[in-house]
Write the structure tokens for this entry.
Amino acid sequence: MRLTEEERSILEGKEGNAAKKSMEILVALGEIYGAERLIPVTSVQISGVSYANLGDAGLEFLAELARDGRVRVKTTLNPAGMDMENWRALGIDEKFAEKQIKVIEAFADMEVATTCTCTPYLIGNKPNFGEHIAWGESSAVTYANSVLGARTNKEGGPSAIASALTGKTAEYGLHLDENRQAQFVVEVNARIDSPMLFGALGYVAGKLAKGRIPLIRGIGKATVEELKSLSASIVTYGAAPIFHIEGITPDKTLTPDEKVTVKQKEIDEAIADMNDTDDVDFIFIGCPHCSMDEMETLAELLKGKNVKKELWIGVARPIKKMADEKGYSKVIEESGAKFACDTCHVVAPLKGRFKALATNSAKGIYYGRGKNGFKTAFRPLADCIKLAVEE
Amino acid sequence: MIELRGRKICRGRAEGEALVSKEAISFFGGVDPDTGRVVEKGHPLEGKEITGKILVFPRGKGSTVGPYTIYRLKKNGKAPAAIVNKECETIVAVGAIISEIPCIDKIDIDKISDGDRLILNADEGKMKIV
């Protein structure tokens, strides 16, 4: 790999230890994947923020980097293991909270914007078409590549930090045109018109993809909420972190010969696969984190209602603040629902606390089952709320 | 003595006994960072301890939190002495670099058997079976 003088000087440690280690990571990845050079990035999203996933060693690693590492580009964080303000109400224990706060402090020392969300593109970390970025969080990576037309590989925690501390990434994979082309066509012949149904489509298309890139046809229109749901589920269930939808996504792509048709039957089967109970004790909405429109819908659905089960709303704190101003938050909280800002049911330490989860997120189902061992109910948003207010 | 040549992933030198897996290894959830034992159900190395061994396997797999598990192994004194891969990928490469574990790849790992004595010179991307 060819390095510039500046890059070489970072690699030699002239700009501190954290930058040096970061450059070592980027160069090693570049060598592995055959990159010819490093390229500048305009934005970073760091995954691996929950103490539940980092443990003490991860925390120690971050603290070490924080000694002299400072970010060089706009950088935000993935969800943490708890709501950073409201953690007591969510039943998080003191010890965990103490460690989680230390994790966030280390990132703050590195001058990261410590807003913890899986939807950075809803809160101002939103790259433009064609920009090179270095993002973790598979759903956000997929949204950035597919919906925004920005360019990023699916970065792990340390490699995203390495990009933040140097402002660079290695030029390989999804940074290059030739690796962003569709590899098979998914012809949709079914009604797909809600975030839940886009999630079900992602389940089917992801399993068909087996790591490849789909070109989806037969979808007339899609909202931000639907596209974030599809981005989350398609990559969770096996596609590459980029898709194309004819008439909707901005990247140009070749049209491959291989074609698979998805009919209503496959969508119905996917929904049935994700449902194994009606008897839930936990409802999570906001995977990925809720948009302002979803906050409005939740306020409408919960107005005057009395929530009988544990209902959490996952949302980025800036969106929650906007909802405060609109009066939505008050309505939602008066119903007995709880905000889980900065966090979600995938990264919070919830194993053993609940038996069964209802959600409208196909990704949420996958991690509810795999990571937490919950039984699951996969339902439209309104039905999830109905389950929450029933005895 | 056989010499095998590959590619440097993380610098360093090591000498030790080979522990060979024909299957990929997931560090996050697949290896216990406190004991250094492989805990993935049904994995060919299930129950084996990787500590101090030269761990030979085709490639990493699984969650991108894997590098932190490798780092935890190192901090707990339970890490392998070195890593030899067929095709290294992001998780193992980053894990090896942040944990300073010598690592090489592009090695024909079928030539290495469990218990072989290995000498690794990762700086030059090569190793010997003694």
Observations:
- The CA atoms of residues 356 and 374 of chain A lie 5 Å apart.
- The interface with chain B takes residues 21, 24-25, 28-29, 31-32, 47-48, 53-58, 60-61, 136, 154-159 of chain A (CB under 8 Å).
- The first helix of chain A runs from residue 5 to 11.
